[in-house]
Amino acid sequence: MADDTLPSIAILGAGSMGGAILQGLVRSGVAGALTATNRSAAKATELADLAGVTSVALEDDPDGNRSAAAATDIVLIGVKPAMVPDLLREIAPGLRPGTVVVSLAAGVTLATFASVLGDDVPVIRSMPNTPAVVGKAVTGIAAGRAATAEHVAVIRRLFETCGAVIELAEEQIDALGTISGSGPAYVFLLIEELTAAARAKGFEDADARLIVEQTFIGAAALLDATKEDPAELRRRVTSPKGTTERAIAVLQDAHLAELFGAATDAALARSRELAAGA
């Protein structure tokens, strides 16, 4: 086993986000033993062919979560926020000393984890996003009181297999979720709407998708390659008195800054509702 191989990992609830992390780990080549659980056999079957993954269907093995948590060094909690407390109560008795528990659940606080698991279990709260599937995630992590620098380092390394990692105070995790956590959906919505505009101008569906999607991919690649401020790159495309300037003026007149502020505020409010059990 390579020196940089991660400890054994269980992902309890390998749905959208948990599944993205799982695929990122598999693709990285540095994951150790991996176990993933899902409620249905159909979903478990989808993951069964991933290299090195033991995929467990809870409908076939009702003790699957307990068994997986008891046998691994890192346990990622990927179930829906409302289900987290019950899952923690289920696995708590079998956790081995030193096992690190990592939350993927939006709005569920470190205090909630400590109230069930106790103050001595190292817990790290995370906020990844779905580009983990292709190694381009942004993941924020916040450590609980029992988590040491060594625990944080190994969880950071885990998420770095899927993209970039930023360490935060817990108070910033929900805000991060409104930007990077939900952000891919904002980008996909923009792509949908610009594609609709292309269709309205006479392009066939396939051509409209190609034009728009490659434009977004190319713009992001240019930003990544040049490391320039996006405002500077925008200025380079926007010739004075040209067509782009006219289009940008329309978008700015729509008060995009206020719109994005309101959207992320709404997401943050919902995150706090989830934390309160609403």
From TrEMBL:
Keywords: Amino-acid biosynthesis, Cytoplasm, NADP, Oxidoreductase, Proline biosynthesis
Domain Pyrroline-5-carboxylate reductase dimerisation: 170-274
Pfam families: F420_oxidored, P5CR_dimer
Pathway: Amino-acid biosynthesis; L-proline biosynthesis; L-proline from L-glutamate 5-semialdehyde: step 1/1
Xref: InterPro entries: 6-PGluconate_DH-like_C_sf, NAD(P)-bd_dom_sf, P5C_Rdtase_cat_N, P5CR-like_CS, P5CR_dimer, Pyrroline-COOH_reductase
UniProt-annotated binding residues for NADP(+): L12, G13, A14, G15, S16, M17
Localization, UniProt: Cytoplasm
Residues annotated as binding NADPH: N65
Alphabetical GO biological process terms: L-proline biosynthetic process
Enzyme class of the recorded protein, top EC level: oxidoreductase
EC numbers, comma separated: 1.5.1.2
Gene Ontology molecular function terms on file: pyrroline-5-carboxylate reductase activity
Domain Pyrroline-5-carboxylate reductase catalytic N-terminal per the UniProt entry, residue ranges: 9-107
A GO term from the CC aspect: cytoplasm
Catalytic activity: L-proline + NADP(+) = (S)-1-pyrroline-5-carboxylate + NADPH + 2 H(+); L-proline + NAD(+) = (S)-1-pyrroline-5-carboxylate + NADH + 2 H(+)
Gene3D superfamilies: NAD(P)-binding Rossmann-like Domain (3.40.50.720), ProC C-terminal domain-like (1.10.3730.10)
Purpose of the protein: Catalyzes the reduction of 1-pyrroline-5-carboxylate (PCA) to L-proline.
Family to which this protein belongs: Belongs to the pyrroline-5-carboxylate reductase family.
Name of the molecule in the record: Pyrroline-5-carboxylate reductase
Organism: Microbacterium saccharophilum
